[in-house]
């Protein structure tokens, strides 16, 4: 008997951040590799008339133009938790389901936030450079002091799954914890701050764990940074667009903020030269979920969402 052919799907970008993710999708589906096309929209019109599902990533997203070039489209399954890069309004208008990969990456993203908090306050990356550059034991031999983490005040913007996991880790560090959200929650032990500015004025560490998109654009602006103050430490593991990067650079340059730890940037992968030249900032290339275990679990969830869609017309983790 001839083997059953694999369902065709459209894939917008490669699942390149894991050795197992793309092979897993390829084992079950036949992706039309849109990123290899010189004119993707023309290619979709030509090739994707009857294809019903898209695989994308939080990075590549999915535009209205793509959705509207696929008349049979019914589901978009994304590899990642953030969906600000997917045109959700266009998907809803056209009755297209969207799924993401929540939960499986929560712990790794929270761990990365903590890595950045400790690195930014205890000057870990700077200390590493100091040793590699041969300064230890040389003329300016004593390394500058950092700031204590344990027992400090932790403010979290966005108390969703990831914000909550960051807060739980903070309890292990005997920190006092407060948060700001659109709404106060009555199922957590931490105090609610009425405004982001009030949270920043209170906190030693302000960690950004809110969603990206138009609703949170530049929420962390010059006045929030001023409220956080010259001893404050800012960490961002959500989206670069939440912070006014120009205001952040000025605050770091002028000593109006102690330091920052950033996994995400406004125009990534471009990182402003001014930011790269500063010693009081720790920079990561958007790797909060990048562990073997988590990326594999994310790929499995994409696969299960696709399989559920092809078998039942529904996805397991809808947005
Ligand atoms: C996510 O899953 O949203 C991560 O930020 C990767 O883009």
UniProtKB/TrEMBL annotation:
Residues 21-319 form the D-isomer specific 2-hydroxyacid dehydrogenase catalytic domain. Residues 115-288 form the D-isomer specific 2-hydroxyacid dehydrogenase NAD-binding domain. GO terms for molecular function: glyoxylate reductase (NADPH) activity; hydroxypyruvate reductase [NAD(P)H] activity; NAD binding. It comes from the Bacteria. Pfam families: 2-Hacid_dh (PF00389), 2-Hacid_dh_C (PF02826). One of its GO terms (cellular component) is cytosol. Keywords: NAD, NADP, Oxidoreductase. PROSITE patterns: D_2_HYDROXYACID_DH_1 (PS00065). PANTHER family: 2-HYDROXYACID DEHYDROGENASE YGL185C-RELATED, 2-HYDROXYACID DEHYDROGENASE-RELATED. Belongs to the D-isomer specific 2-hydroxyacid dehydrogenase family. This is Hydroxyacid dehydrogenase. It comes from Corticimicrobacter populi.
């Amino acid at each position: 008997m001839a083997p059953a052919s694999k369902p065709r799907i459209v894939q917008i970008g490669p699942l390149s951040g894991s050795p197992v993710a793309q092979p897993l999708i390829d084992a079950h589906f036949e992706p039309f590799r849109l990123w290899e096309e010189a004119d993707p929209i023309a290619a979709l019109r030509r090739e994707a008339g009857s294809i019903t599902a898209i695989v994308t990533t939080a990075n590549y997203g999915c535009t209205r133009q793509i959705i509207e070039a696929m008349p049979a489209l019914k589901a978009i399954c994304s590899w990642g938790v953030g969906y600000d890069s997917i045109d959700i309004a266009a998907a809803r208008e056209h009755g297209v389901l969207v799924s993401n990969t929540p939960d499986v990456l929560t712990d790794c993203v929270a761990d990365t936030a903590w890595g950045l908090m400790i690195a930014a306050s205890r000057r870990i990356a700077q200390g590493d450079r100091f040793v590699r550059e041969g300064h230890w034991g040389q003329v300016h031999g004593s390394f500058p002091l950092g700031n204590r983490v344990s027992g400090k005040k932790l403010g979290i913007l966005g108390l969703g799954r990831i914000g909550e996991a960051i807060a739980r880790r903070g309890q292990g560090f005997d920190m006092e914890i407060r948060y700001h959200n659109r709404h106060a929650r009555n199922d957590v032990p931490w105090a609610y701050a009425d405004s982001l500015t009030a949270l920043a004025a209170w906190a030693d560490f302000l960690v950004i764990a809110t969603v990206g998109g138009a609703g949170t654009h530049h929420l962390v602006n010059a006045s929030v940074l001023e409220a956080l103050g010259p001893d404050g430490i800012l960490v961002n593991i959500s989206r670069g667009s939440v912070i006014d990067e120009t205001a952040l650079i000025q605050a770091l340059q002028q000593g109006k903020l102690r330091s920052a730890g950033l996994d995400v940037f406004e125009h990534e992968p471009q990182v402003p030269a001014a930011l790269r030249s500063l010693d009081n900032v720790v920079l990561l290339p958007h790797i909060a979920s990048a562990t073997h275990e988590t990326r594999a679990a994310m790929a499995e969830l994409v696969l299960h969402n696709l399989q559920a869609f092809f078998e039942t017309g529904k996805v397991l983790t809808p947005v």
